[in-house]
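#struct-pred

JT: dropping the chains for the assembly here, can someone run the whole complex?
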Amino acid sequence: MSRNRRRVAGDVLARTVVYLMALVALVPLSLVLVQTVANGLPAVVHPEFFVNVDRPVGIPGAGIAHALAGTIIMVGIASAMAIPAGVVAGIHLAEYGAGRVGNTVRLACDVLVGVPSIVIGLFVYALLVAPFHRFSALSASCALAALMLPVVVRTTESAVALVPGALREAGLALGLPRWRVALQLVLPAAIPGVVTGALLAVARAAGETAPLLFTGFGNRFLNLNPTRAMQALPLTVFHNALTPFPDLVQTAWGAALVLIALTLVINVASRVVLRRQIRLAGRI
Amino acid sequence: MAVARRAAPAAVRPPDGFRSLTRVISLVAPLVLVGVVLIVATNAMPSIRQFGPGFLIERQWNPVKQEFGALPFIYGTVVTSVLALAMALPVGVGVAIFLAEPGAARVRGAIGIGVELLAAIPSVIYGIWGLYVLAPWLLLHVSRPLSERLGSFPVLAGPARQTNLLIASIVVAVMVLPTLSSISRDVIRAVPNGLREAGVALGATWWETTWKVVLPAARAGIFGATVLALGRALGETIAVTMTIGNRPDIPPSILSAAYSLASVIANEFSEATGTLYPSALMELGLVLMLVTLTMNILALLLVRRVSREVPV
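RK: done, full complex below.
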């Protein structure tokens, strides 16, 4: 009897611990969110924060316009490279990727996702910065594209694989060539999943700092020329946070708030789109 | 799924331009991977030739005297990653067990999304938070009292620094938590219900079933998730750079400042002059990449094996 009581007590205890763990996991998220908002708001409430660029220490009115523009330009160029290529590669994997080549590509993508982003930075530095003797936003975009590509490939593949085979068979039975089946029947049916993957990749790229350190490098002024060094939001946070000047640290917190808002909005948007995919897949 | 798409014999297959074109594009990712390994290795060559394998166990890092050794960085990287995993693993598996249970879908869904959003927060945000919020608090309430009371243990010897190995590990633990919990949750969910029912039918409590039946069945997958998380932890750059203290030492105490492979590259590469200095940093990058590649491939094989064995 007492043995059973001990077992039940152990069960209750274990249950409590597991539930506690689930709550503990939410503590850092809420702390990071709340404290970033609290520390960032004083900077963000000034409208000129979004219009001005860096100011020397001690002169008020510093802004992040150059970083915001840089992030948009660099992530934009990276997306233009990585998303089309990734989607096409993902379609290939889902439609023809049963063989050994397909498995190699899959493994390469999964491994590439895990390569430390700083190493991608080194790679792009050696390939695209050192030969031209110049830091450039373009090289930074290439580094970001290398990080985005495997994410887009794998999410596209799984979205396309969710499309029922009957849809393909219907198209083929009507005499459509494989490419039209893939691009005009299967891809539209999978588009929400593809968009989700692309959005996740964009959010990841927008938040990356390490690969930009020696490619985009950073710039204290507004620069829209992609062959020159360019500032980005994560670089502002990183460089300013490590200075001893309260003004600059304040700017870093403001940029951190903008960055976190940006990535979370993109992330939540991707989840909404994904839910549509699941509903769509249920209907076909 | 793969069975249904068995390829037709080559002789019968009509030429398919779309297939060939998309295949070429799909080869970009493997090419990038090979390119990364080759380019980083080539650029590390001057350093590899100069120092040989001794580079890995040399304790001195003094660019001014052209002395380059990787040991302090390997030490800092390994200590932060292992500590981070030790902290994150119980929480991650606990969350996974919680999320894999049926019922209360709304609560579980909300907590699941909360944990996954941890992965969406950029590394630099964890860095600034660790540096300005966590570090001062820990110094006051944890590190200093610890070193004052238990300072006789070398692991906790003082004086406690504001940025140190412990803070870097905590930050990394938070960052790898989503990796651990989401993969473990999938693996735990994949354990056949028959096993759970068999446990309950024998009169086992929920915890006994979970601990003695479900977790052993999911062991390989959870191990895979751990290795994958370890790979992430080893390569984490910016958040560690901002919290580890950046001193090329090998301190026994986790309350001292240290350095990691990724952070020394982040801090010093753009200022490295000459041939040997950047090349030594490249070699550190090569070491980091080879270790994470091995971890990732091992983890993928483990997770893949589990998902093949266990019918989902």
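JT: nice. Chain A touches chain B through 89 residues (CB under 8 Å). Chain A has a mean pLDDT of 92.
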